[in-house]
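note to self — DONT lose this again. spent like an hour looking for the file last time. sequence + predicted structure for the chain T wanted, 214 res
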Amino acid sequence: MTFPTPETRNPVILPDGNAHEGTVFLSAAVDHPRFEIGDYTYASAHKPPDDWALHLAPYLYAFSPEKLRIGKFCQLADGVTFITSSANHRYDGFSTFPFMIFTGAGPDGPSMPEPGPDTIVGNDVWIGQGATILPGARIGNGVIVAAGAVVGGHIPDYAIVRGNPAQISRMRFDDETIAALLGIAWWDWEIDRIVTQEATIVGADLAKLRSGTA
């Protein structure tokens, strides 16, 4: 069984040879200096945008000091939006008005806020339809973000979060299993090996998954 390469399948081509116009591997679709995207991470949209970077992170500019870092094998549903740190306004003074946008001063203007942190998404993260990720959020590996959730702060590995503000609904696995999965890190395997081990990766037999790492 073969698997597409993330550099050449944009839009994603289905096994029957047809293009899935609404789904792209983001590493092939995004050309932006402040994005870092792992292999096989994809995004979907009911109406595919001309600019996927602008669609996903409308306030992440080429001159922004922060980055949006997304790991491998993540799944971004329609309507997911990253509100990165450059969307912030300065609010330590008397006015929050972003004068620098209208005066042309840009990032050197006095109304520019202090640089904010990167927004980081781990590997194998599923972000549901219409979810919003706030500036500086750090989402761990294997997290599931429910549709419409508004996520900020640190989300631990293999948590399920929902709501506004997003709260942990439950952990997907116990601490021992999570530690084992992080140690195995299947997303770093060669793609041929991943495809061969598909049934084990999407299953729930930890012993079998461990044996696949030998």
